[in-house]
Amino acid sequence: MTKQISVNSRSYRLPSVPTIIVCIDGSEQEYINQAIQAGKTPFLAELPTFGSVLTGDCVLPSFTNPNNLSIVTGAPPSVHGICGNFFYDQEAKQEVLMNDAKYLRAPTIFAELARAGQRVAVVTAKDKLRSLLGHQLKGIRFSAEHADQVTLEENGIENILERVGMPLPSVYSAELSEFVFAAGLSLLTKERPDVMYLSTTDYVQHKYAPGTPQANDFYAMMDGYFKRYHDAGAVLAITADHGMNAKTDSIGRPNIVFLQDLLDVKYGAQVARVLLPITDPYVKHHGSLGSYATIYLNDGDRLCDVTNFLKGIEGVETVLTRSEASERFELPKDRIGDLVLIGERLTVLGSTPDNHDLSGLTVPLRSHGGVSEQRVPLIFNRKVVDLDPARRLRNFDIIDIALNHLSQ
Questions:
Q1: In this predicted structure, what is the pLDDT of residue 34?
Q2: Cβ atoms < 10 Å from Cβ of 48
Q3: Beta-bridge partners for 245
Q4: How far apart, in whole angstroms, are the C-alpha atoms of residue 389 and residue 134?
Q5: Residue 17 burial (CB count, 10 A)
Q6: CATH class of 4-244+371-404
Q7: What single string gives the DSSP state of each residue in 151-211?
Q8: Would you identify the CATH topology of the domain 256-367?
Q9: How far apart are CA 198 and CA 220, in angstroms?
């Protein structure tokens, strides 16, 4: 049997013990620091004595789909093609969700591990990621959101609700992520996959800042499962798809730049189309507002003028052309607009007020998407070895480090 596989120009050793990759959605590093300081996460507090605590950068835009797919392919969006939760399909000439595996341009590490004879399981919180992460995977693949619909034929497992012993959780709840960890423990105990990927939801991080009781309790829940995975002998590798920041002024009001409104007033309607790649089916906690936007121009001759206009808007941190953004952020040129905008740390980018329903926000707006949310944790319950200290670490290095650079 082969001892390693090659995927997207990178090599990976096959695991000798069960290896669990965890992607904590929206895990700004301060969440862990505050939970440790509050005494809520004893396992993570002790981990540096026997494991490794590193940091790295996620890919931009710092959204869920691009980063989860980067993690599971070991490559940036320029390789796998998923550059947002939502994009403008120029062939179909319509705005569409990037949930369909037909948009994926590269194989996943998990599918190739399964082809090499490894037992693989992928458990996501939201179903929007299941088809992408489980693309061509012969193994277990299901979401907590649709755990009541799991079948052996479609998902590689059945009766998961009964096995986990939890009711079907709401998609807008901390319990959705807890179900992922409980399901992972059940799989580790019974099926004992060689490799397992657990991906959560950022519902808690969108609502609660680091150090709040709700956030600390959420990390305490995860800490308990991490310890049980560790005690069961698994290699544990933890990262995040992106960080999270408050997007408000000093009294808690949302800081929003409505780009479509500004462009329409300046140039007239139909000159520019603003597209917000944070958009997904679950908008109650962020109202489709993030710190990254793309703009399509109907008149290419206006590119320089529009660029200069946008650079002068308060709250806009960076304006890049398609070529500049593709090179700097490793994005597929054919799936981004003529311009890419990054918002400042406390600012989100919107289209028009009518296009954003903020009625579901019961707390001050917290969101992500920009460079401000790029730093994420890389945590392992083993010592990292033979890693170039000059190497720029990325969240999509997590599987490489877990399989190739941990002490036995």
A1: 98
A2: 10
A3: 367
A4: 33
A5: 12
A6: alpha beta
A7: -HHHHS---HHHHHT-PPPPSSSHHHHHHHHHHHHHHHHHT--SEEEEE---HHHHH--TT
A8: Gyrase A; domain 2 (3.30.1360)
A9: 17
pLDDT at 337 over 50: yes
User: Where in the sequence of the chain do the CATH 3.30.1360.110 domains occur?
Assistant: 256-367
118-174 residue pLDDT tens: 999 999 999 989 989 999 999 999 999 999 999 999 999 999 999 999 999 999 999
- Lowest mean pLDDT of 142-146, 275-279, 348-352, name the range: 275-279
Residues 6+ apart with CB under 8 A from 257: 313, 314, 315, 316, 343, 347, 348, 349, 350
Numbered ranges of CATH 3.40.720.10 in the chain: 4-244+371-404
Of 145-149, 247-251, 398-402, where does mean pLDDT reach its minimum? 247-251
Q: Is the dihedral of CA 221, 224, 228, 233 positive or negative?
A: positive
State the number of CA atoms in the 13 A half-sphere of 79 facing the CB.
18
- Those residues with Cβ within 8 angstroms of residue 408's Cβ, 6 or more apart along the chain or in another chain: 16, 382
Give the other-Cβ count within 10 Å of 151's Cβ: 12
Q: pLDDT for 73-105, tens place per residue?
A: 999 999 999 999 888 887 777 888 888 899 999
Q: Quick check: bond before 42 cis, omega within 30?
A: no
- Total count of residues recorded for the chain: 408
Is the pLDDT assigned to residue 191 strictly greater than 90? yes
Give residue 259's identity as a one-letter amino acid code.
L
